[in-house]
Amino acid sequence: MRSFEAVGRHLSFTRAADSLGVTHGAVSRQITLLETNLGVRLFNRGATLTLTDQGQKLFEEVAPAFDRLAAAVATIDRGETQRVLLVNAPPTFTMKWLIPRLSRFHQRFRDVDVRLSTGIGALRELRMNEVDVVIRRLARPDPDVPSAPFLSSALFPVCAPELIERRPPTSPQDIADLQLIEAETGALGWADWFGRLGYQLPPSARFARFEQMFFALEAALDGLGVALMPSALVLDDIAAGRLTVALKVTGFHERDYYSLCSPLTRQAELSQAFVAWLGEEGADSNRLAELIIDP
Question: What is the number of other CB atoms lying within 10 angstroms of the CB of residue 289?
Fold first, then answer.
């Protein structure tokens, strides 16, 4: 049944096997055995894997049961005198915004062990019994998973100051003459940025592309080119003079940062305190961004 729950959650035998730490074949055999015992097909195995009507009914009962079981076990595991708060957030956000501010939360709650994990998956795909607070960058709130915005984030072109010291860009065309840094995890890229300013990205444009946003940001810090980055992630580097906005144009909002308390958290009061603290820190960052980034 655990194999069925994992396949139903991921809608992939491969990802389900990875999450369970077993082989693809082992999961496939378990599902076949379950379907044989029940006498019904649970999955449609076409170009994409989907649940059948019977499979959907079973999944809607099985998934919450496993969540409740895991939550019950967690109450035993969390019997320490020190309180534990489990926070899941995007990796670059965690490194560039959250961790540098986390000491201020610890000053208020010295008995709390904040344990950070990273992820960028959709909220509805998370196992809510394994986290207390979730942070995601969203274009809009998910009506099925209530969350609240706490940090604004517009996209701006940024680079190391020395890259443009001799010839500061005065137009998007000047930006196109520089090497353009992109991250595969970004929802919008340079073509979108130029398009919104009424320019077409020239065919001669040079790119440096990276799998993760953090790598792209490090490349910009090292003077490799100009990167299109969420303002929240570069705010501290701009304030410290390590980065500069390459062209003072109005940034466009793609997604803001949202937080939510897990409905299955065993630390409801503490989770709410952490979310409230995020709101305070986010408001401070928003004010700072207006002063040093917005044109």
Answer: 22
Q: What is the C-alpha to C-alpha distance for residues 65 and 77, in angstroms, rounded to an integer? A: 19
Q: Are strands 43-45 and 49-51 parallel, antiparallel or unpaired?
A: antiparallel
Please state the rounded mean pLDDT for residues 213-229: 95
pLDDT at 294 over 70: no
Q: Quick one: which of 245, 286, 277 has its CA closest to 152?
A: 286
| Sheet strands (E) in the chain | 43-45, 49-51, 83-89, 112-118, 133-138, 148-151, 154-159, 180-183, 207-210, 226-230, 244-245, 252-253, 256-261
Contacts of 243 (CB under 8 A, 6+ apart): 158, 159, 160, 161, 220, 221, 234, 237
CA–CA distance, 52 with 214 (Å, rounded to integer): 40
The CATH number of the domain where 146 resides is what? Answer: 3.40.190.10
Residue 251 contacts residue 294 (beta carbons within 8 Å):
yes
For residues 36 and 100, membership in a common domain is answered with no
For residues 115 and 84, the answer to whether their CB atoms sit within 8 Å is: yes
Q: pLDDT-based confidence at 76, cuts 50/70/90?
A: low
Q: Which domain, by its residues, includes 73?
A: 2-77
Interval 132-154: pLDDT, tens: 999 999 888 777 788 899 999 88
179 pLDDT more than 60: yes
Short-list 215, 226, 217, CA closest to 177: 226
**Residue 159 φ/ψ, nearest 5 degrees:** -160, 170
d(CA 172, CA 188): 16
> What's the whole-number average pLDDT of the chain?
88
265 and 138 within one domain:
yes
